[in-house]
UniProtKB/TrEMBL annotation:
Organism of derivation: Actinoplanes lobatus
Any matching Pfam family: MDMPI_N
Gene Ontology MF terms in the entry: metal ion binding
InterPro entries: DinB/YfiT-like, Maleyloyr_isom, MDMPI_C-term_domain, MDMPI_metal-binding
Domain called Mycothiol-dependent maleylpyruvate isomerase metal-binding: residue spans: 7-118
Signal peptide (UniProt feature, chain positions): none
Protein name per Swiss-Prot or TrEMBL: Uncharacterized protein (TIGR03083 family)
Assigned GO CC terms: plasma membrane
Domain MDMPI C-terminal residue range list: 134-212
Amino acid sequence: MDYLALLHDEFAAYQDCLDGDLTAPVEHCGDWTLRDLTVHLGQGNLWAATAITELRGDYQPEPPPEDLGEWFEGTARTLEKALEREPAAEAWTFAPPRTVAFWRRRRCLETLVHRWDAEHALGRPAELGPQLCGDGIAEVIEVFVPRMIKRGLAVEPQAAVRFTATDLGGSWVLGPGEPVATLTGTAQELMLALWNRRPLPWETVTGDEAAARAALTGPLVP
């Protein structure tokens, strides 16, 4: 997957939202407005760039200017420049692998979800690429669920649940052993559900629903 090209496209799509109402509330991000979301994403770009170029995770952001458009574009370019390093090059990360490749994937998927947030806040239809959404499902299972458990913010699932994307023909399993249940939807629907942007599609469940609900007791992501 060409994360650099995909990230560039996601940045462009997010930038298009900055001609909208920056006071619009962002439904799934507490009391944030679109301006707050943009500051979060832009400062995250600079944090990740510092993690790559300076091998540290303690970047302290400065307050952004009032006009966010040019500032956000600058943070995107800074990150893209940092990500041009070899994927196997060392970087500070909060989970393995400790390489630039981690940040290529992470920032692409972070921007994907927040692009949806921004378009949703503005009442614009948000269509996300199914392949990238499928990778987002995998990232939640591979990176965030273990991290939430390690940090004591979630419990180890006692059963496995399969997520099947109808538009990709692929599936992913969260939890140990053979899956006791399956949830079905498009890759976008499933990824957004795992990121708490929409309810999990319990109407599609097959198998042991009670065990699946217990296994998916959150939070699965920060």
